[in-house]
Write a structure and sequence with these properties.
With about 160 residues, the chain is mainly α. The protein contains 7 helices and no strands. It has a domain at about 10-105. The N and C termini lie far apart (about 105 Å).
Length: about 160
């Protein structure tokens, strides 16, 4: 096999912006493109709290595919010195807008921080009792007889 055939064979397996889904499914998982897909899925899944719904997983998959297409177009534009056809320009813009809308659907803010679990709360023990009344005020939890013994009752508020 000549060097020319080896180069063509290698290039025939290269992922391009217009690759069909079959090419993306059969791609070598060690490539930069596969890592980009895997990293994008992981980042968006973590953004959603680690347990996305079926609908969110579908949106994540679409976003990962679009990000891959955009990255391959970026690479192509860089290799050609930024030259692009009108078709490439419109396609890139459409994909970038679709990617932006998908990200907006997934939410601009990440999942809220997870609070402590019940097991963590129980392991921490009972909370300390905090007294909010001033020290000279009668204890609100004390029986009425104890409150009467603690001092004269407060004057009733004036009604206007």
């Amino acid at each position: 096999m000549t060097a020319m055939h080896a180069t063509n064979r290698r290039d025939s397996h290269r992922i391009s912006p217009y690759s069909k889904r079959v090419a993306l499914v059969t791609m070598d998982r060690r490539t930069k493109e596969a890592r980009l897909l895997r990293d994008t899925r992981a980042e968006l899944t973590a953004h959603l709290g680690g347990n996305p719904s079926a609908t969110q997983r579908a949106l994540i998959e679409q976003a990962a595919q679009l990000r891959l297409h955009l990255a391959t177009m970026d690479r192509t534009f860089a290799e050609t010195g930024g030259k692009m056809t009108l078709h490439d320009s419109r396609t890139y813009l459409a994909w970038a807008n679709s990617y932006s809308r998908l990200l907006r659907l997934l939410g601009l803010k990440g999942a809220p921080e997870r609070g402590p679990s019940l097991a963590e709360i129980l392991a921490a023990g009972p909370p300390a009792r905090v007294r909010t009344a001033p020290p000279d005020a009668p204890d609100a939890m004390a029986p009425p007889a104890a409150q009467a013994a603690s001092g004269p009752p407060a004057a009733p508020a004036e009604v206007i």
